[in-house]
Specification:
Length: 268
Amino acid sequence: MHQKESVIAPILEKALGVEIIIPDSSFNTDTFGTFSGEVERTVDPIEAAQLKCIKACQLYDCSLAVASEGSFGPHPTLFFVPGDDEILVFIDLENKIEIRARELSTATNFAGSLFTSWDDIKAFAAKALFPSHALILRSEKDDTTHLTKGIDSWEALEQHCSAYLSQYGQVFVETDMRAMHNPSRMRVIEAATQKLADKILSTCPQCHWPGFDVVDVRAGLPCSWCGSPTNSTLCYTYQCKKCNHTEEKLYPHGKQTEEPTFCDYCNP
Ligand SMILES: [Zn+2]
Ligand SMILES: [Zn+2]
């Protein structure tokens, strides 16, 4: 519904040699929840993506499906910075395979605020990358009875804002996070898709099952001065979901020592 296939399909078709079919408009993914709150998402994002995959497979009599789900809010580790958390779920019903990828990015315009003046709205809109990124208006935060979505021109913004301001004396302006209205989000979904393709193509060295993936991350990369273990990543553990074969990969970020700046002994 939100044209995510424009970034997902080219990557997966090339990586997997598949042909992507887009469900027609009768497959309404908004029933799994909308960002603007008319339909609340009652399951977590992974479950929502799994449900979309299974539903699409049933409708189109396919065994492979991919679905994406995004969440927005304060970044989990960086305070006061908004984050875009994109999850992609790939399922293969025939072989009972599920592979997921996640991309967490701060490259998002996600924001919303209550306004009473056009000048303040103009400043907010410019910061929110409008009009390349669309906006949503409503009478107040979380109101779902009167809202206008997908506003993508200054003319329409001014016209709608003046209508809301004269009717309510205020207007809540927020970023429209639907992918086709938000090029920043589209780029994060694209990055998540690349991760997904890489994970699917990562196969077990023993049995060649797809989705040979990291299951554990171990810290302890040594300091380049004193050799003490730091909190930086020393090794990844990969495990096969089929035969349970595990492998450790040392120095996954391509460096064998860490800068003394990050050492608790050299730089307490
Ligand atoms: Zn295996
Ligand atoms: Zn040190």
